[in-house]
Amino acid sequence: MVDLAIDIRGVTKRYAEHVAVRDLSLQVPRGAVYGLLGPNGAGKTTTIRMILDIIAPDEGTITLFGKRHTDTGVLDRVGYLPEERGLYKKMKVRDVLKFLAELKGIDGSEAERRIEAWMERMSLKTVDKDWGNSKVDELSRGMQQKVQFIGTLIHDPDLVILDEPFSGLDPINAQALKDTVVELKARGKTVIFSTHIMDNAEKLCDSICIIAQGQKVLDGAVSDVKAAHAGRTVAVSFDGAPGSAVDAILRDTTLIASMDDQNRFLELELADGASSSELLQRLVHAGASLQRFERVQPSLHRIFLEKVGATGVEAGMSGHG
Amino acid sequence: MGKLKAIIRREYLERVRTKWFVIATLLGPLLFLAMTVIPVLFVSRTKASPSSSNITIIDATGAALGKRVAQALQDTVAVKPVVTTVPLQEIAAAESLATKAIIAEQRQGYLILDTATMSGRAARYTGRNTSTVPDMRRMDDAVQKALLELRLEGAGISAARIDSLTKFNVQLDKTQLSSKGREKSGVGGAIVGLLVAFLLYIVLLLYGQTVLRSVIEEKTTRVAEVVISSVRPEILLAGKIIGIGAVAMTQLGVWIGSSAWLGANVVPMLVKRSVTGDNAAASARTSSELMSGLPSFSFGLIGAVLFFFVAGYVFYSCLYAAVGSTVNSESEAQQAATPVAMLLIVSAIFIQPVALAPQSTLASVMSMLPFAAPIMMPMRMSLIAVPAWEIAVSMIGMVVACLAAIWFSARIYRVGLLMYGKRPTVRELFKWLRYA
Fold first, then answer.
1. Above 60 in pLDDT, residue B419?
2. Nearest CA in chain A to B234
3. HSE-up of B249 (CA within 13 Å, CB side)?
4. Do residues B65 and B118 touch, judged by C-beta distance below 8 A?
5. Confidence of residue B390 (pLDDT cuts 50, 70, 90)
6. Which of A42, A181, A199, B294 is the most buried (most CB within 10 A)?
7. Domain match, A183 and A260 both
């Protein structure tokens, strides 16, 4: 059996008006970078909060590193960056970090040593300027994000949980975050992050889980997920505007299930029973001047839309990135 | 435990280090001194002004009483009264002349001594300073003394003998007898009672709202979520209340300690310096009465004040924390916290009635109602001997109220801390109580 960092089994969380998470089970192998994908309101944050014992599930069990997540000390091995970020505004940067370290059971000189190392690494302490003695609200937003990020990792957690980590990050901090995730993985740490930006997930994740309306839609290794959906997607582009004959072919639902205009090319999802060679034949026959005709692996974005769209959660997609 | 300690330390140090705290803690005692001792000093300042001797004495007694009064008035001040001796029927003319002198601001007033004075019934004084108590008391003393001397002399007693017979100054030493035993009493006791009540009221309000703001800060900055991913919300709440409570204790400790020092060292000095002349004895008496009230602060009372302060603080800070967790901003909090503040304000309104009648039914009831007890009971205990059963009922009620407040606020807090948006209705709050 695989060594699991997170093992969630049959978890349900109900609120008065709705069910936030319904019978969710997912396994995150140790050392993986895991993406929790879903539209807004799908239950990602609720799931994360249940893992962290911030809220209690109504049913089901959550195990971290083989122990119940409520056991003493288990959560000290977890670092958490919430979606809505914030720190004590009036506290000095060093004091905030020291406090966050103490909450995870790291204190005294060990905490101080790590704080200095991290501040140098994140260039909060340079030869010119030491921000450690400044109050948090004297820092720019980007620097505050760095401080928060240090706070998440200061206790060298084995499991790092990031809720929408890329939202609100400037490109430099986003890059730093990506680098850090890669480095954490290289050191054998497990990283789980939620996002609705598929590009980030596709680049960074080993495995993903897509949830919608509180239920798992699909999960697995990114390569497996993409392979399972391969061969059904074709990228097409034309020299100049396609004629009416070509348009008719593209609108034939026996041939094409869906079409997504990507501006420079069209991403076509083949209908059941149709093949790419049949499509190519008909396009050539209609006299289309093809610039590109390629069987492509579908993007996670595409799979996501297809899967989540099928469960009828279109409303949540309005904010997708 | 280490995490709880970290939270307590953060709450404590972040507050104690602020300028506001340092200034308020250091200036507090001076402010209390200004508020309590100085008015007392003003009242006890019984020295008459020298200008009160600058009067016309219209003597129609025909027995030179005017001269004797002038003599008595001159005893302590350099200013000499003018004595006009007139026959009875010319009083009116002399009076209008004296009135002119007052209008021209040459004289403070005029005193008419006539047959009514000689018979020991009345003398009339008209002047600018009739509402100045020390001036009038001095005038009164002078007339009484002059008349007494005149009569004693008429009875054939020598002037020197009269002098030695009438020179005395009895000091009334008051002791309150209660079921607790004998106790010194005086202005001091009442002042200490009121001081204790207002101090408790101010501290409960101040630090209750500090807890409120602290909860809101963690909620609005969203730092709460990071913290409760490491510790249970109950630990965070407990650490917050203990930490801020320690700040309150520190401040109160400095206030009480330095007030006691000021009371023991600086106040007598101030009193002494402000008092000279004939009324020195009276002043000294007032200030010694004031001081004699202070030692009645027994260990039992200090223990009771401590108990009610801690219990009151736990009760109110829990309620404030619960309110803080249900709101999204400080401005919303003002409105939401009104019911809690009302409990404190109602208690404060009753401070004066209860202080004036500490043995009344109203006082007993107020000091046993859990929300008012932390203010009322210590005040009553510093004023009178409160029956033991009342103290017991009040303390038990307070403990029960605290446990209820802790239970209630822990539940509201852990749900409210993660809820943003619309403020919950009362019905929703009851739902939250059942979530946990």
1. yes
2. A54
3. 17
4. yes
5. very high
6. A42
7. no
- Which residues make beta-bridge pairs with A259? A268
Q: How far apart are the CA of A235 and the nearest CA of chain B, in angstroms? A: 44
What's the mean per-residue pLDDT of chain B? Answer: 82
Is residue A316 in a domain?
no
Among the listed residues B376, B22, B36, B370, the one whose alpha carbon sits nearest the alpha carbon of residue B195:
B36
The crossing angle, in degrees rounded to 10, of helices B19-44 and B280-292 is 140
ipTM score of complex: 0.81
Band of residue B394 on the pLDDT scale cut at 50, 70, 90: very high
Asked if A171 and A90 sit in the same domain, the reply is yes
Give the domain CATH number at A114: 3.40.50.300
- Residue B157: CB atoms within 10 A of its CB come to 13
Tokens 């059971």: give the residue: A105
Does residue A115 lie within any of the structural domains? yes
Mutate to test the interface with B, among A102, A110, A162 (most CBs of B within 10 A): A102
A95–B contact, CB cutoff 8 A: yes
Opening angle at CA B71, ends B65 and B77, nearest 5: 145
Out of 3.40.50, 3.30.70, 2.60.40, 3.40.1000, the CATH code matching B50-166 is 3.40.50
Contact A82 B222 (CB under 8 A): yes
Across-strand partners of A7? A27, A63
User: Is A146 inside a domain boundary?
Assistant: yes
Which of B2, B221, B225 is opposite residue A105, by nearest beta carbon? B2
Asked if B110 and B126 count as a contact pair (C-beta separation under 8 A), the reply is yes
Residue A19 has pLDDT above 70, yes or no: yes
Q: Are residues A216 and A243 in the same domain?
A: no
A contacts of B230 (beta carbons < 8 Å)? 75-76, 100, 103-104
Is B10 an interface residue toward A (CB < 8 Å)?
yes
- pLDDT of B316 reads 96
- Are A141 and A240 part of one and the same domain? no
Minimum distance, in Å, between the CA of residue A215 and any CA atom of chain B: 22
B226 and A78 within 8 Å at the Cβ level: the answer is: no
Q: What are the pLDDT digits (tens) for A34-76?
A: 999 988 888 899 999 999 998 889 999 999 999 998 888 899 9
Give percent of chain B above pLDDT 90: 30
Range of the domain at A20: 4-221
CA of A101 vs chain B CAs: smallest distance (Å): 10
Q: What's the structural domain count of chain A?
A: 2
CA gap A217, A269 in Å, rounded: 19
CA–CA separation, B101 and B123 (whole Å):
20
pLDDT band at A320 (very low <50, low <70, confident <90, very high): very low
B164/B166 Cα distance (integer angstroms): 6
* Closest Cβ opposite residue A89 in set B3, B221, B227: B221
Any domain includes A301: no
Same domain, A146 and A265: no
Q: Does residue A49 sit at the B interface (CB-CB below 8 Å)?
A: yes
Across the range B120-131, mean pLDDT stands at 85
Residue B265: pLDDT band with limits 50, 70, 90: confident
At B399 the pLDDT is 95
Average pLDDT, chain A: 87
pLDDT bin (cut points 50, 70, 90) of residue B246 is very high
Same domain, A263 and A158: no
Whether chain A has a CB inside 8 Å of the CB on B230: the answer is yes
**pLDDT for A36:** 93
Q: Say yes or no for a CB contact (<8 Å) between B6 and A99.
A: yes
Alpha helix locations (H) across B265-387? 267-274, 280-292, 299-326, 330-336, 338-349, 351-356, 361-366, 373-383
**What are the boundaries of each domain within chain B?**
2-44+183-435, 50-166
- CATH of residue A263's domain is 3.30.70.100
Range with the poorest average pLDDT among A280-289, A301-310, B119-128: A301-310
Q: Say yes or no: A116 and A211 in one domain.
A: yes
